[in-house]
Amino acid sequence: QVQLVESGGGLVQAGGSLRLSCAASGSRFSFDVMGWYRQAPGKQRELVAEITSGGTTNYLDSVKGRFTISRDNAKNTLYLQMNSLKPDDTAVYYCNARILFGREYAYWGQGTQVTVSS
Asked: Block means of pLDDT (10 residues each) for the chain, length 118 residues?
């Protein structure tokens, strides 16, 4: 049973920083892609950043230069360093992990709230 457990969310003032972590367990295979998604009230879930097992990254345009995604494959942990936070970054952030083996196997964490006050 694959489990993804996020931590590190909270309340921060605009301009501040937070670091999200996602600890993965229960998979017999390494994850080909891991990423962070977010969903604000009344909006669709959107991809914030993702990283492949080889280290290739992809970011939402609005977070480029402010957020950095990284992963520690030995610890099966995903990180998101968020700097220069804005009120528009307020959302529930979800960890996602995918295995590409014949078909795509996708897993989600329970989410962690990030609130940025102005």
From this structure: 95 98 90 96 97 96 98 93 98 96 93 97
Classify 61 as helix, strand or coil.
helix
Measure CA 70 to chain center: 9
Return the structure tokens found at 84.
């220069």
How many whole angstroms separate alpha carbon 87 and alpha carbon 79?
21
Residue 85: Cβ within 10 Å count: 22
Q: Which CB contacts under 8 angstroms, 24+ apart, belong to 77-81?
A: 77/21, 77/22, 77/23, 77/24, 78/21, 78/22, 78/24, 78/34, 78/35, 78/36, 78/51, 79/19, 79/20, 79/21, 79/22, 80/19, 80/20, 80/36, 80/48, 80/49, 81/17, 81/19
